[in-house]
Amino acid sequence: MMTERGITPSQTVGPFFAYCLTPEAYGTRGIASSEVATADAAGTRIRIEGRVIDGAGEAVPDAMIEIWQADGEGRYPDHAANAAFRGFGRAETDAHGRFAFTTVKPGPVPGADGSAHAPHIAVSVFARGLLNRLATRLYFEDEPANETDPVLARVPAERRATLLARRTAPDAYAFDIRLQGEGETVFFEI
């Protein structure tokens, strides 16, 4: 005998980040942090601040942002010359959807085909309602190498601004992430 069952809810991510994935969950162990720059990190120290907002322009208060990057000389953390540089960080959004990272401005890095990629930071977004993370890149609006970056060149010109962090101070940039709607951030399939 078969019984009638209703539709079961979809599986989604969150809102549990504060319990297991964000820096605060690790306390003093330092496994993940919004402080990416270490004392030996080559490059100019910067702060990146932003907001995660939904299609209606409302804050997403329980998202987690992950970043992965090279140091100021274009070296990823496994390079012996900067062994302590993490190159990886996590930050949760607050009640207003805000997040921040302290890091160094990365240098250009070689792509798989040997071409140079403009300084950028790989960004992942995890939030309620998302089955998979969203992946994007943060580029710097004042970086001349953006003109020849092979990934940025594949993004339609009218959408590139969604990937550009704006300089707000000599050592600070703003980068907002819009999950959908007008001005939606460009996300990449990986």
TrEMBL record:
Q: Tell me the keywords, alphabetical order.
A: Dioxygenase, Oxidoreductase
Tell me one GO molecular function of this protein.
Answer: ferric iron binding
Ribosomal protein as UniProt keyword = no
> Has keyword Cell cycle?
no
Protein origin, superkingdom: Bacteria
Which InterPro entries does the protein's record reference? Intradiol_dOase_C, Intradiol_dOase_core, Intradiol_RC_Dioxygenase, Protocat_dOase_a
SUPFAM superfamilies under this entry?
Answer: Aromatic compound dioxygenase
Domain Intradiol ring-cleavage dioxygenases: from-to ranges: 48-76
Family label? Belongs to the intradiol ring-cleavage dioxygenase family.
- What name does UniProt use for this protein? Protocatechuate 3,4-dioxygenase subunit alpha
Its lineage reads: Bacteria, Pseudomonadati, Pseudomonadota, Alphaproteobacteria, Hyphomicrobiales
